[in-house]
Amino acid sequence: MSGLNLFRNPLHKWLGRAEPRPTVPVKELRERDRRRMLRHFLQIEGRDRLLRFGSHLSDEQVAKYVNAIDFHRDMVFGVYNRVFRLVAVGHLAFAEKQPHKNDVTEKDRVAEFGVSVLKSARGLGIGSKLFERAAIVCRNHDVDTLYMHCLSSNQIMMHIAKKAGMEIHRDYGEADAYLKLGPANPASVLQEAMQEQLATIDYALKANVRRAAKLWDMLPGRKPKQ
Ligand SMILES: CC(C)(COP(=O)(O)OP(=O)(O)OC[C@H]1O[C@@H](n2cnc3c(N)ncnc32)[C@H](O)[C@@H]1OP(=O)(O)O)[C@@H](O)C(=O)NCCC(=O)NCCS
């Protein structure tokens, strides 16, 4: 169970239509989320960890990666489920353009995106939504090239990349994909702001419910949950 049903629209049944995918509130993550990010990444194990990081990182290396994330330079997005569990994280890292390397852009900076979704929440459009959000943020930050580095065998990510219109270069089992983006416009700025506002309300609601549940568990006579 993904526990992501907060924004489901019940009208589809009445209209006799296929059930639509739930709306995914994508929230920008900050320092206060770092501990939950670490918990999320430690749950990405085995082959999935290889697919996410490009190599087999130990738990210690994962912790180092999470601790090194610079929230002032990069942007990190997350999706929380109903019980305030971080089910997905997307890391949008900005970097200076390297001469001779990033010759597909005239801009000073490029961005690279990495994403992970917990197994229990896959196939609901969350990975695609995080990617979509990263692309909008790039446009609004005057970055017109969004890179993704993944293994060619990563069928799901390849599918998402192709769906987004990314140019894909395969090389010795690895794939570098990049997406060229248009400039910001009022619609892209509004879209980012609205997504963040919706996600902020959702975040506050879930955090408060979680806090209330913890207080409830602390009442005399109640056994705390393990
Ligand atoms: C890749 C990943 C982020 C996708 O997350 P997700 O939330 O399940 O993705 P979505 O639900 O948005 O999209 C999955 C798409 O892949 C398609 N898909 C599923 N299995 C597939 C397969 N074997 N081959 C091709 N496409 C497949 C789905 O149909 C869906 O496409 P659609 O939206 O057009 O129907 C997730 O699987 C993951 O965390 N993997 C481990 C880490 C990783 O690989 N990260 C990417 C490298 S940075």
TrEMBL record:
Q: Which Gene3D superfamilies has this protein been placed in?
A: 3.40.630.30
Coiled-coil stretches noted in the UniProt entry, renumbered to this chain: none
Q: Which UniProt keywords apply?
A: Transferase
Gene Ontology molecular function terms on file = acyltransferase activity, transferring groups other than amino-acyl groups
| Boundaries of every N-acetyltransferase domain copy | 24-185
The record ties this protein, via InterPro entries, to: Acyl_CoA_acyltransferase (IPR016181), GNAT_dom (IPR000182)
One Pfam family in the UniProt entry: Acetyltransf_1
**Origin superkingdom:** Bacteria
The name on file for this protein is Acetyltransferase (GNAT) family protein
Q: Which organism is it from?
A: Pseudoduganella flava
